[in-house]
Specification:
By secondary structure, the protein is α+β, with helices and mostly antiparallel strands. It has 5 helices and 3 strands; from the N terminus they run αβααββαα. It folds into 2 domains: 64 residues, Winged helix-like DNA-binding domain superfamily/Winged helix DNA-binding domain (Arc Repressor Mutant, subunit A), CATH 1.10.10.10; 39 residues, no CATH class.
């Protein structure tokens, strides 16, 4: 198991009591990137509520139910004229190249 997986699991275990936990608690078990681990848990389908703390920071609470995991999507950036061409069924080299680059970025960032 990799380090980031163990930290994600540690955060899930901390939240498993379904009580509110401060960002400091999650930082202690999940490290400075605890927010990224929370996002990973949300993408897996866990419902995690947040609320602001009056002294700064956030509190986190795990809901007692899980949604289906969300699917990561490829994000492609196209010029407006390329989008219009694509909608009309014309696929030019710029569109193909933009899609290839987007897929490379997607695959390099699991």
């Amino acid at each position: 198991m990799t380090e980031w997986m163990s930290k994600r699991q540690a955060i899930l275990e901390r939240l498993s009591d379904l009580q509110w936990h401060s960002w400091r608690e999650l930082n202690a078990v999940g490290g400075v990137r605890y927010g990224a681990r929370v996002l990973e848990l949300k993408r897996q389908g866990h419902i995690i509520d947040t609320k602001a703390s009056p002294t700064g920071g956030r509190y986190y609470k795990l809901a007692p139910y899980v949604n289906p995991p969300s699917q990561k999507q490829v994000r492609v950036y196209l010029r407006p004229e390329d989008v219009e061409a694509l909608i009309t069924g014309i696929v030019n080299d710029d569109v193909v190249e933009a899609c290839k680059m987007a897929l490379v970025r997607f695959r390099s960032n699991p």
